[in-house]
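User: Fold both of these, please.

Assistant: Here is the first one.
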Amino acid sequence: MKALFLACCVFVSQIIFAQSSIKLNTTFTDTNAGFNSTNFKISSSVKDSAEAFNNTKKLLNKIQSAGFAAASLDTFYCDSNNCFAQFFIGEKLNGFQLKNSNIENTFLSGTKQKLNRKKSVLTPKEINIVQQKILTNAENKGYPFAEVFLDSFKINPASANINIEKHELFLFDTLSIPQKVKVKKKFLSAYLGIKRNKPYDESKIKSIEQRLNALPFIEITHPHTVWFDKEKAKVELNIKDKKASVFNAFLGILPGGAGQKVLITGEAKINLYGMLGFGEQLNLEWNKTMPKTQVLKTMIAVPYLFGLPLGVDVRFELFKRDTAWLDLDGNYGVCYQFSGMNYLKASLKQKNTIVLKVDTTFIKQNQTLPNALDIKSNEFALEYYFMNLNYRFNPTTGWQLTAGGSVGAKSVKRNSLINNLMDEKRGETFSYLYDSIGKQNFQFSLWLSLDKFWKIHKRMTILTSLKAKYFYSALVFENEKYRIGGMNTLRGFTEESIITPYYGIANLEYRYLLSKNAFFFTFFNVGVVQQAASNKIDFPFGFGAGVSLETKIGVFGITYALGQKHNEKVSFKNSKIHFGYTNYF
């Protein structure tokens, strides 16, 4: 065992040396009539010693699963042109009881129910699963060269002891990045979970490629390598800077209304990623959804502050609804970072609405307050975010989830114009209309966004998604409701033309990839909303197709969509066309 461990250390510490191709030679000892070596073949030509060692471990698992539970890898070593692996085989058994010999509880997670069970016989396959689970636990707790093996076999009753030889404890060393890049080592260390003097964790090594691919501002040039030397594991990342900041622009051509033949809508976004090397993100967004109506959004997020699993996320939104009202929304959050960019965020949400124009005629005629009022609200919110996508900008597999909720209270501010407006019938001002509204009104909201990508072919993928929001308050005003419709929510409808206190949107989309960042797509989406006039439930739906084309100066896209809701049937004259442009810099 000691000789094998030392040989493994030497081999692993040398895996970074380039080799064109080497031959893997396997031999088997203590075989019997039940063992046929032709059933356990592996490729004899491998690119390097690391691949050779991984192949021998896979072969050992296959042998043990076939019933040779006592099989082990006795010898493994390499020279310049060859690698040699010698396996001990032993007797083939149909099953027996396992007894824990020297394995600590910390390595037994997920296996305790199978060990030391009286009158319970495990099959070779079950035994192999137990061995692999213990080995995985050891590799994730600082023992990359641990060995799990069986001994002390007994025939009546059939039993064996399961043992572990941990070998040396290895700790992570500092990250090594040969090429000069903007991103800081401190950020990458926290992001990957590879921290100096923390026990080696094989699961973190296996997730390096996926997590690095999720970062928009770096690109992997070669696979990462790991050096084992003097009880230290040094991880080398072969990466370079990549253009990640994004400028997006959309132009919508929609059927007009109120004397307009055509309504032009627009949107522009600038997303800046990792400009300072700390994984930070700065977003600026402006859009014009209808005449005299504009939205401005800003966001800044900085994860892993000071190398700790804590980050900040601050957002601000200004919404001006023609000359009717102005919304000022703030969201000030602190994030606890899980693995990668996944987080749990606690935040304070604030909303202020300023009514710019009061419909005095409505108040006088209906003896009631208008649908939009001056309000101020404060809410405490929790939000969870998880992403597991193979490529952030145009994924083909994986999923991402955002789920959260908030609770708080709002107060209605008295408008001076309404306070001073005379009710000629009662001989007093309309300020009495505010008396029926409490000083503080309880409210809460829930939201969910789930996207799942299903790869069905090398160039084809299916996107299924669900988005939903719900807002509750005893009094819900027009300026508190959600605004949906358009490219970012329910396609086939005018931007933010559907006003509702709750909604759910399901989307099914087929994509055919033209390049890494471009694709042709068709879609169908359907929603559930509350009708503005009758408060009845409506099920608007939309469908269409589009394409994005990647060029040297950016990605150009066009989308054509049709939609139907309770008072609007599918009609080509109501079709929606959006042109888009994306540039990475």
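And the second sequence with its predicted structure:
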Amino acid sequence: MISKSFPPTEFAQKRTLWLVSISLMFCFAAWTVLSVVGIKIRDEMGFLNTQLALLMAMPVLTGALCRLVFGVLSDYLGGRRVFTLLMLIPAAFLWLFSLSESYGMMLLSSAGFGLLGGSFVVGAGYTSSWFSQSDQAKALVILGSATMGMAMTSFGTALLLQYLSWQQMIQLTALTLVVVAIGFQLLAHPEPVRSELRKQLLSRLTPITEPAVWRFAFYYFLLFGGLIALVLWLPVYLIEVYRLGLIQAGAVTAIFIVVTSLMRLPAMKLVSRIGARRSMYLSFGMVMVSTFLLSYPPTTYVVHGVTASYQFAFSINIVSFIVLICVLGCFLSLGNVAVFKHIPDYFPNHIGIVVGTIAMIGGLGGFLLPLTFGLISDVVGVWQISFILLCFMAGTSMLWMHFTIRRAERIEWSLGQSVSDLPELSTPSVFILEDWRPEDQRFWQQTGKSIARRNLWISIPCLFLAFAVWTIWSILVVKMPDLGFAYSANQLFWLAALPALSGATLRLFYGFMVPVFGGRRWTALSTASLLIPCIWLSLALQNPDTPYITMMILALLCGFGGGNFSSSMANISFFFPKKEKGTALGLNAGLGNLGVSAMQLIAPIIISSSLLGGEPLIVMQGSQIDKPIWLHNAALIWVPFIAVAAIVAWFGMNDISSTKSSFSDQAIIFKRLDNWTMCILYLGTFGSFIGFAAGFPLLSGKLFPEIDAMKYAFIGPLIGALARPLGGLLADKFSGAVITFWLFIVMVVGVVGVMTFLPSANSQGHFGGFFTMFLLLFLASGAGNGSTFRMVPVICLTLRSKALGKDKQEQAIIEANRESAAILGFISAIAAYGGFFIPKAYGTALSISGDVRAAFFGFILFYLICIFLTAYFYMGKKARVKC
């Protein structure tokens, strides 16, 4: 039932606001229940600080990731219905958590009740529908005060734990949620108006392409994420640093939450009076000051005088700490209010999706920050390091914001126009190519060639670094067992495979980003994102007790490198004419693929050196026992190169205006048969290449333990990377389909050869023959990468030219370029799953039968299918398209 009266009465508005606010208080209380209960669980179960941090942060992660989805669902299905479900479903997971006896089950259950994190987005969208645009901002601020529910957890839970076990406390929380959900469903009314809410999903997602959304999201990552992180981390910090009891620590945390929650209303008035811009400056500035003071650890000074030494100490006592932490919370709240003040003005018709996006990023901050607090505390051994991190983030945010504002002012002064977007992420005219006609020979020779080549040679090192980060686990998993990381063989294969899984999934989205955001902008930002897994890995790898789940998350984050490939190839495809696309794409991918072999060549060298600093791990078994290994250097070595590459891409590349298109414009490829056939063919070539590269070092170590496969691991990926441009060149000169057809036949021969030299019950196998056959597979799959990629632009241009006729060839070229770029990105995404399935096929075959041959039989069958598809669709007189 949908009420149709609008505007609603003032009584109905107030009833809705208070119903949602009270319900949200209980949702926030249940969402952060582990901030107190987790301490008791850690003491009973013997968990590390890192494990505790991950357990507390897991609900925040799922709550963050689901916010965007629930923002859309609340607009589509109605907030009342979704809000009720968002209390009932997590209640079931809370009950399951209370019955858990293992760390893994606790993580799974906490991820389930983390769905409560999406309640604010749904509540905000539902409440906003009852208010006019002018009153929506005030309503959202009042809803934000519901975070006082976390104070109920911090103090009330600590008090009740004196009389209840942690299991009983969790069960009480679950029952309370059920009661609140039933009460809300009975008392709340459907939205008064929901016109045009049942739009297509793609149109609902349109606002997230606006740079302004991501500007607010970036600020919210620190402001809201920092607030949630402190709520989760404060009880642990107070108990460990100030030796408070659980009740006292909970009381201090409750004071912090109440103060920050009550600050929202005066913060709203302050923002209205001085403006959001000044409020943001004030917020970031005071966050820097307070975190700088809080970051100072207890210190003893000794002054050596002429005749005596004088000693004095400095530390922040508990009273000073409470004052400073409350000041910090107040200015974090001020920043939160300033962020949400903009949303109804900028996006009055898309509040649910925009709030969902921004809240998702803020929630990710609430997940990553406490997890990082626990990790760096374990590694560095100084509890105050968490405040140093927050201080650095606040300083970075304020400098970035100041740069943005000054640049916006210069644009406004010079052009006399208002700038509401994110200026440093918008493309200055000097970087935009308004006229781009690579098929015009005169234009190409006089102007286009030099520009295209400059973009290509900047793109190549960015892609090189992406592949290096993507395949870093192929090296790490080989060394980790000898250094005290107690993971099973199947777990190690999972770590080697997970970057391919996440990278392939990211490629599904990255391939469509270039026409939406621009190639220059996306290349720079996606390259900079590689800093996240590299820096985090450099810390985690210094501690052999780092939980396996943390390593899994880091392996997934390394998938950022895999995602970059599809956007890079799509971007470069726009710059070159048809006759040179194969060579250009081959160079970009082939030299970029060298990052795989570079990682496998450089990493074994750099981890044996103390050049980059840090504490080494000691080899505990094998022929190199007692040797120091700086395993974290394998990640740290790439950090400066990534930073430089991102900056060069930002200032050296271009965007092509004619490539701009929405996701819905590109979605036409899903109706093209050739998109799906090329997915299969490219899975056979690139999927094999990246899968063999990821799995070869570990597989060789398992099958031939007496051989140090690390010495040879880089050779195969090197040959495959160098063969890729050759495949593209041969396809340009002859036919992509013919070259691909024969390369698949070579790959069948290669797999049969590998199986011939495998160890068996009657033979120890032959590593030389095994390695040689793998080199043949790398050569064929690498060259096949280039030839299959060359087929796509030819197929698209041929079909669009036939469809539009000779009179519309210029339009055919534009549409063919757009479709081929989208297809290249999409097939790259599907093919990258080969990097997951091939190592997992090895691990599964070995765990089930103790023999890897079953996996290779599967590869042969797949290659035979690829041979048939290539011949049937793209070769011979009856071919669909000869290419």
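Confidence is low (pLDDT under 50) at residues 1-6, 194-202, 416-428.
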